[in-house]
User: Fold this.
Amino acid sequence: SKGNHRHYMLKEIYEQPVVVAQTLKSYLQRMEDRVSLPIPDFDLGTIRRVTIVACGTSYYAGMVAKYWIEQFARVPVDIDVASEFRYRAPVMEDGGLMIVISQSGETADTLAALRYARAEGQKIAAVVNVPTSTMAREADLLLPTHAGPEIGVASTKAFTCQLAVLAAFAANLARAKGRLDAKAEKELVRHLSEAPAALNGALAYDESIEDMAHLVAGARDVLYLGRGPDYPLALEGALKLKEISYIHAEGYAAGEMKHGPIALIDDKVPVIVLAPSGPLFEKTVSNMQEVQARGGKVILISDYDGVQAAGEGCIATITMPKVHPLIAPMIYAVPVQLLAYHVAVAKGTDVDQPRNLAKSVTVE
Ligand code: F6R
Assistant:
């Protein structure tokens, strides 16, 4: 049931602190400050390359994972959307691991990609939310998310749980590769353990986001900008808005703006900038200022320090808890979900059953 929430989507957004904690619990050994996969005897040390394949929101979780795996484990990562991957005759070398990511575990293109990789001699890991699904059954290494049933067509809690699992996976791979000493592992576990509380902190901004929905609801086009592991969050924010409010939205890597999309900027295109404090903050803010210099109306999502440093001149700001850059993609999912939700409600669309969309895409 929806409980006291108006839509399943809102209920599921609010479940995130609990289901992410639940998911992390099965991957973190808190007392020992260790990250552990549910199947410890799977030898990650021999993996030389990772290929991630998924669709839609699950694909964006995979994009974030690429940053983590390459940064922590120094293992090269290829990533593709399943519908492209399966028809392009991808080259798969020995010692490769394919990771499929799927809420349903039934998406036709992703399943076909899994079977292609199997035939090419790859090991298969599956990050799935439905433990009885076809992908779960066909994988060598099952990495379940514990989000519980997701009813709203727009994926929310499955996404943040996928990120939790993928962060734990990246840490495990890094350890297996000898790239994570005990101290670094302890730090990582600490940051990951802070995610549920930070998700709660992010939800506390719900009403303010509802109050700013009118800034977006009347727009024809909306841009989302981010860098590094927050670039996929810009793509995810744009997808959520498109799906449930039917407003045209695009996500861009902030540094790509000047290579074309900046031509779109005028005072009618709201630009949502995701810029948590961290090594990429200044770079993102300078892209944001280029937008503002052309009359662009910016909504900045950052933490208190970021909003203090760069919030001036924005039409609105959204203040997230200050978190380690590792978990920022998880936390920044919340404001982009809530913004899409409140804009859709303001426009009166069918939030849980958007037109033309199905929850599980079992035909290609
Ligand atoms: C977005 C959304 C879709 C799914 C995609 C993959 O809100 O729901 O983009 O993420 O269809 O579905 P799964 O994860 O079940 O393979």
